[in-house]
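>> Question from a student workshop board

For tomorrow's exercise we were told to take the sequence and the ligand below, predict the bound structure, and bring the output to class. My setup keeps failing. Could a helper post the expected result so I can at least see what it should look like? The ligand is zinc ion.
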Amino acid sequence: MPRFLFGPAGKPIGFKGDLIASLTYLRELGLNAMEYEAVRGVRINKERAVKLREAAEENGIKLSLHAPYFINLSSPEEHKVAKSIERLNRSVEAAHWMGAYIVVFHPGYYKGLSSPQEALEKAIEALRTVAKYRASIGAEDVILGPETTGKTTQLGTLDENIAMCREIGGCRPVVDWAHMYARSMGEYITSVDHVIEVVEKIEKELGTEAVKPLHMHFSHIEYGKGGERMHHTLAEKEYGPSFEIVCRGLAETGVSGVFISESPILEKDALVMKDVCRRICGERCVAD
Ligand SMILES: [Zn+2]
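>> Workshop helper replied:
Here is what the output should look like for this input. Compare the format with yours to find the bug.
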């Protein structure tokens, strides 16, 4: 595997046919990853998921799955936690069928709880139930990936996600660079040292397995008070963070990584990222 893989969050915008056929299109473009978006609910059945797996294998596309947005593992309302666990279970099952290596999810919110610590503990407890379910269906191949969230009201700082993964086996923090940048109001992820610090923290706390590969989201992002507002393209230079800084930092650490483009122009910006990394890290860092 080359060090860095690139692909879109969901069906490429330049392809009009079915999602399964779009994997061939991605390969022809020179991309090698795709995140299946179950963000509005896990609706794929087993038959179709298996077809997706076959198409991914044929085209050398590494699949991941983004779980529904309506997940709140730290809700003070027990029925909402139960529903969130159920949505995550369905995500794990679908990921297992399609051969997606990781389920990315936003862990929850602080609202209604006495402290961020309480939210974290509730999320960990819920994730134990998900991990049990995963084992019960023999889906231990699927990693649980809490994503760094973009709003200050959301559970999911890097430290919190690391804490979750310390307690739960088969768990790995997903680094959304844009969210980290937005949440810090443009203060963090502004230097190569910040990027190296993120990677080293994960390695130190969870071991090198957690960055083989590091799963990441990237786009430019607009923020305001409280964090993220909306995603932007890499051509919109008035927004950050700088992809050049991110790739430079990663290249220095020696980790491998999967970059999912969450830009409004999805695969087109995945290609821009690939070009930037090729220039920084060399041909052997990117696939053909
Ligand atoms: Zn996300």
